[in-house]
Amino acid sequence: MLLAVDVGNTQTVLGLYEGERLLAHWRVATVTTDTADELDVRVRALFTLKGFECDLVTEVGIASVVPPLTEQWRLVAARHTQSEPLILNSSLDMGIALAYANPTEIGADRLADAVAAVELYGAPCIVVDFGTATNIEVIDKEGAFVGGVIAPGLVTSAEALFSAAARLAKTSIEVPPAVIGTSTREAVQSGLTYGEIDRIDGLIRRIVAELGYPATVIATGGLSSRVVGLSETINVVNDDLTLEGLRLIYQRVRG
Q1: Residue 170: per-residue pLDDT
Q2: Level-2 CATH architecture, domain 103-245
Q3: Which strand ranges, in their side-by-side order, compose the sheet holding 21-29?
Q4: pLDDT in tens, 57-81
Q5: CB-based contacts of 26, cutoff 8 Å, min separation 6
Q6: Catalytic residue among 6, 109, 129, 140
Q7: For the segment 209-253, what is each residue's pLDDT rounded down to a tens digit?
Q8: How far is 229 from 53, CA to CA, in rounded Å?
Q9: CATH number of the 2-87 domain
């Protein structure tokens, strides 16, 4: 079985695949100081929680945007499979063209999202990944990754606001009952949630105008559920998009 590991700045998502079927997935906090031993303990506990044995894992694919953890996850994977895992990077044959000035700058999660989006929804398409950063990936009608947008994510924006404004108390990120907040708490929530989704919708409209043709818009990421229902441009939600892309790339590269 394949264990797909998506190491993000805030959260790490793991998916256990039997062929094309996702048997189980887990979402945990990313701790940048974790060692291979600590990660190993975590993985074993997660597997036990859902009734799986770690011995089931024979292959591992890793998409990491946290360099200190990439090597630690490599060590964990090698320990369980006695072989080197596939670590996603732009030099691999992923089946899509990278029309990017410097492909090595593209994060592994962005590559996986693009591959999965083309495979599952066809080109042209646009991926909105709601995470620590809100990433927008653009795949043109030829199926080439042509670029995108990177902006502060929803939680990142909230943390910056609360740390910079001394009189604003930290509040949960929820959609308030109306855009016009009748309390400071609702006003902050409105600015964060409606502000985020209106920024996304505005950027997508600009992207479509630059492309010159419509494109399917797919949302993914751990924070997508907070605001995606407010969007006027997002067509579909797939929270497992990055894992699916990692699986597809692994199968293409390793057979």
Answers
A1: 83
A2: 2-Layer Sandwich (3.30)
A3: 21-29, 11-18, 2-7, 59-64, 86-87
A4: 999 999 999 999 999 999 999 998 9
A5: 13, 14, 46, 50
A6: 109
A7: 999 999 999 999 877 777 888 999 999 999 999 999 999 999 999
A8: 37
A9: 3.30.420.40
Q: What are the E-state strand segments in the chain?
A: 2-7, 11-18, 21-29, 59-64, 86-87, 125-130, 133-139, 145-152, 216-220, 236-237
List CB contacts of 32: < 8 A, sequence separation 6 or more.
Answer: 66, 68, 69
Q: Which of 58, 54, 2 has the alpha carbon at shortest distance from 244?
A: 2
* Span(s) in the chain for CATH 3.30.420.40: 2-87, 103-245
Burial class (CB in 10 A: 0-12, 13-18, 19+), 101: exposed
Token readout for 186 is: 């609702």
**Would the pTM count as exceeding 0.85?**
yes
Do the Cβ atoms of 135 and 129 come closer than 8 Å? yes
Q: How far apart are CA 63 and CA 92, in angstroms?
A: 12
Q: What is the pLDDT of residues 169-208, one digit of tens each?
A: 788 888 999 999 999 899 999 999 999 999 999 999 999 9
Task: State yes or no: is 109 an active-site residue.
Answer: yes
Residue 167 has pLDDT above 80, yes or no: no
Side chain identity at residue 199, one-letter code: R
Those residues with Cβ within 8 angstroms of residue 120's Cβ, 6 or more apart along the chain or in another chain: 238, 241, 244
